[in-house]
Amino acid sequence: MERTRVFLYAAALSLTAAAMHAWAMPEHLEEWWGYGSFFLIAATAQACYGLALLRRPGRMLLLLGVVGNLAIVSLWAVTRTVGIPFVGPHAGEAEPVAALDLLATMAELALVTVLLAALLRSARRTEVVNPVAEVASATADEPGQVLSRRDFLRASGAVGAVGISGGVLGAYAADARGQDEGVGSGGHGGDVGSAPTHMGNTLVGDVDLSRFDPTEFLRDFYWGEERRENGQVVREYELTAEETEVEVAPGVMYPAWAYNGQVPGPTLRATEGDRLRVVFKNQGVHPHTIHFHGFHPANMDGVFEQVGPGQEFVYEFDAEPFGTHLYHCHTMPLKKHIEKGLYGAFIVDPKEGRPEADEMVMIMNGFDTNFDASNEVYAVNTVAFHHQRHPLKIKKGELVRIYVVNVLEFDFINSFHTHANFFDYYPTGTRLEPSEFTDTRVFGQGERGIMEFRYHFPGRFMFHAHVSEFAELGWMGIFEVEE
Ligand code: CU
Ligand code: CU
Predict the structure, then answer these.
(1) 303: CA distance to ligand 1 center in Å?
(2) Which candidate, 417, 416, 436, places its Cα nearest to that of 426?
(3) Ligand 1 midpoint to CA 266 (Å)
(4) How many angstroms does the Cα of residue 62 sit away from the middle of ligand 1?
(5) SS3 state of residue 389
(6) What are phi and psi of 4, to 5 degrees?
(7) Is 400 helix (H, G, I), strand (E, B) or coil?
(8) Residues 148, 152, 158, CA angle at the centre, nearest 5°?
(9) pLDDT tens-digit map of 351-386
(10) Alpha-carbon distance 74 to 71, whole Å?
(11) Which ligand is closest to the CA of 327, given by its number?
């Protein structure tokens, strides 16, 4: 039975007993002021108790009700058998059992039973080892009530442990790998493979890197199959949409829709002016498309030409303008089709090229693992805390170029912050001169650009969203600068 309804019945029982005692009060007052006072006190206490039950009672209050009502019932039994104890004009006399007091006693006994059942239930509910899960289950004890990410954060704040626990990330945690230990170590100086952390956000275990390794994805560019047609470079790519599962944190599987079985999809790369031919196959169960950012004819925009399950479509256009772009599905509801994982980076190099650098792609994304239209996990390139577990190795003094794309849904802004360093920023990568020199850049949905920097000191340096909540839920990494 629903918890609130149980307490409604309990309150009714307590008020019934109170009414009986109030009804009998004048009669007993006539016998002696002491008897009358006892009935008045009992009636008032039971009435107040009934009202208190209507406001989410705690365990102490339930216990008080059991003891109090049992005391009244015992006293009643004594007065009906042995006799009224010690006090008043009728001390020692046994009273006859009447319908009214029998009814009150039955209400009290029924109330005691209900309260005991509620106590047992709450004891069972808190027999959980995981402190976050305990608070979480206490928050979510109403059937059908979904524990939101904000509730989780509140609850975890209450026990002083912030981190990701598979158990509270929703029902989709596939197996227990790393979950029990998945709660943040709490306090400061938590340790992941000796990686220093801000707040002790930790996650034990690792995702299955043989399926998707964010470190490899970083520098993996898909140039397509290159050939020449009438003096123009033609690049042919194949992208297939399908349903798959992606592991977004150790043991936490997300049912995704993906291009080529991975989230993000492959990073498509070309040079300005190349002819692009993208063969798109939909092997999913929903219609999908590919919508490219850039210049192209209306029928190549991936909006009106929906590609149904089992169907194929070939997108063909010239790569322009140069810059850091993205591609994503444009089927309605758009939010859903993007959030499920149908997106990737699309990089067009300027004809004259860019200076030699260690180049990588970082797609800032997030995952709604409990389907409440807000994200529980944040990352660059899908896997929470990946570059904290596996610090990203770069060389001291070498130019690093990061193509950054923000595809986060639900949250309006994202950001990128580098520690102990500043970067040149090229908005959308469409100009060859940077627009600013900074260490923190805010990104709206679909916003992207190029970051360039060099580290002049060796050692470990954090990079993360300066939206602290995102950082604590996975969007956090470390550059390991080597000599
Ligand atoms: Cu789609
Ligand atoms: Cu877009």
Answers:
(1) 10
(2) 436
(3) 16
(4) 52
(5) helix
(6) -65, -35
(7) strand
(8) 145
(9) 999 999 999 999 999 999 999 999 999 999 999 999
(10) 5
(11) 2
Q: What is the pLDDT of residue 235?
A: 98
Inform me whether the pLDDT recorded for 481 exceeds 80. yes
CA 120 to centroid of ligand 1, rounded, Å: 48
Q: Residue 330 C-alpha to ligand 1 middle, in angstroms?
A: 6
Which ligand lies nearest the alpha carbon of 257?
Answer: 1
CA–centroid distance, residue 68 to ligand 1 (Å): 62
Q: Is 377 in contact with 464 (CB distance < 8 Å)? A: no
Ligand with smallest separation from the Cα of 294: 2
Quick one: which ligand is closest to 342's CA? 1
**Which token pair is 149?**
């990410």
Q: Which residues surround ligand 2, an ion (CB under 5 A)?
A: 446
Amino acid at 201: N
| Average pLDDT over all residues of the chain | 85
| Contact assessment for residue 258 and residue 265, using Cβ atoms and an 8 Å cutoff | yes
**Least confident segment among 118-122, 135-139, 296-300, 306-310:** 135-139
315 Cβ contact partners less than 8 Å away, ≥ 6 residues apart: 276, 277, 278, 280, 290, 292, 296, 300, 302
Out of 76-80, 298-302, 303-307, 322-326, which region has the weakest mean confidence (pLDDT)? 76-80
What pLDDT does residue 62 have?
Answer: 86
- pLDDT greater than 50 at residue 128: no
What secondary structure, in 3-state letters, does 54-74 show? CCCCCHHHHHHHHHHHHHHHH
Calpha distance 212→365 (Å, rounded): 15
Going from the Cα of 373 to the center of ligand 2, the distance in angstroms, rounded, reads 19
Encode pLDDT of 219-235 as tens digits: 999 999 999 999 999 99
- Relative to beta strand 291-292, strand 323-328 is antiparallel
Residue 293 Cα to ligand 2 midpoint, Å, equals 6
Q: Cβ contacts of residue 353 below 8 Å, gap of 6+?
A: none
Indicate yes or no: pTM above 0.70.
Answer: no
Closest CA to 385 of 284, 297, 475: 475
